[in-house]
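assembly run, all chains below
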Amino acid sequence: MAETKPIPQEGTFAPWTDPQAVPLIRFKNVTKRFGAFTAIDDLTLDIYPQEFFALLGPSGCGKTTMMRMLAGFETPSEGTIEIDGRDMAHVPPNQRAVNMMFQSYALFPHLSVYDNIAFGLKRSDMPKAEIPDRVQEMLRLTRLEQFAKRKPHQISGGQRQRVALARSLAKAPALLLLDEPLGALDKKLREETQFELMDIQEKTGTTFVIVTHDQEEAMTVASRVAVMDAGRIVQVDTPPAIYETPNTVYVADFIGDVNLIEGTATATGEYAYDVSFAAGADPIHVTECEADIADGSHVTFAIRPEKILVTREQPDDRANAVEGTIIDIGYLGNLSTYHVELPGGQMVKATMTNSSRISRRDYSWEDKVWLSFRASAGVVLTE
Amino acid sequence: MKRAALILLPYSWLIALFLVPFLIVIKISLSDIALAIPPYTPNLDLSAGWQGIKDFVSQLDFDNFKFLTTDDLYWKAYLSSLKIASISTFAALCVAYPLAYGMARAPDEWRPTLMMLVILPFWSSFLIRVYSWKAILANEGLLNQLLIAIRVIDEPLQILNTPTAVYIGIVYTYLPFMVLPLYSALEKLDASLLEAAEDLGCTRFQAFWLVTFPLSRNGIIAGCFLVFIPVMGEFVIPALLGGSQTLMIGKVLWEEFFSNRDWPVASAVAVILLLLLVIPIVLFQRNEEKQREAEG
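ok done. output:
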């Protein structure tokens, strides 16, 4: 796991950069096995109060297991989990200041929306007289006032999702766990709800841990994202850092679109390397590379398609420029993606914004074009 | 037209197999006992035409129903049946619920086997199964021998020919009718609902009581009716296991028909029994409909 690199312009909320900050959740060398299968492998992680923390990974990577351990439905095979400084090993789910929003929402079908939200409060030590006020507050927060008397099967999917959120927030937990909270919603509703979630998280100041396999969702809502693979955390960082400085090929490939070019590295100065990827072709000049790489080692150069400029003429102000042939064009409306073949057979994707509505088609299939990018546009990855 | 034809089929089935026999039973219940074949009068003489029908109807009366109120044997038998049906339905529920719960929670690959075990007794004759309980419950039967062998008791317990034996027999026989609807209700229960309840502060027991139990309500109601309704008219089990002490309306019915050969009184008993059962049957139907609405 790479050191967390702060992005200075990220704003003031970055407790993970502050050595004085006290984490709310500490995973210390946690391992979880199911029989012979290791779901979580020696994992250490701190999550700070008021964070919106995303666990991101493909299915089976262990993210749901981590969440279930936080909720108390699973216990670690080894290691400890602390919440608020307290070892949670022998604390059952009903005694944790943690609430969970289930993927299926798990609304009680025999209870009205109101009673679903009041369910947890009735089990708490809140005085009976205060419960209706709290439920009303939750109904207002999630804009469900007029549905209070309905049963879950009488409301829409989006409304059910909000009931589940209101129910899990009603007890004002120190930590809210969200298991694929938006998975069952269609795309448009999902995007709206993402902003609603962020809004509610900000209003309530609750620490949110969200589990998702949708990288866009994680990038949109989270203050930090942990990318997981096979029971391990590969990288924990802010969304921009994860996107711009992935620490492995896995992360670079999992988040967004990327060109991966394999080659050998040669140091050319401080933080600067040349990556030669094909015999006869000019090497790629890279600067601002943090990794310490031995000369001649096998590396992967990763560059995002939108960092590459497509031009007819050779640009003279760019550190890297290479000529290629357009093989394929993907028109997406706002963007066009050009698949360009370099002389060595290497395919490179470049994305250009379609900024003017009525433009002549600049490039066509089989056209010769120049691809160019700055020396700082990509990263060199060793694993 | 096509639809009418389609509906006609089940309706004609019902008319032929339920309504017509029921009307015949009502007719007999309004007749008088006679030493003849069939053992009642009047008989409908259709060859006499309209006059025959008129004569026939004028001879029908409610004497048999009136007779039922003069002898307290009948209402005692009804009440006793009601009591036995209620208690054994409750007992069956108490036995079946844990069974069904265990089945619903069993690993997937076990469930067909467990289901098979519940249904398996149906593969042998009902009479033989009830009869074999005689061998188990008798004074020198298996149960008493076992209890004496492990020194729980010194003297054999008198179980056979008591109401206890009837309850045991009924619960044993009707258990699958209780287990299956309960199982189907509990099996549908989403396990994440229980996790949600625990997550919101419930203990395991509270989660059961506040979530599992109310959500299996329809299964409980269906199972109770499926046991209660046939047990009301049960005749074989009290006859075989209950001895002379156990009074049930099914047994009275049998005796009126076959010992006394008083078909009109027996029919009156049957009509009253059916009218008594119409109430729970209607309630049962309404529950089923409500359930369908909730699911659809």
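The first strand of chain A starts at residue 25 and ends at 34.

Chain A is about 20% helix and 30% strand.

not gonna interpret more than that til we talk
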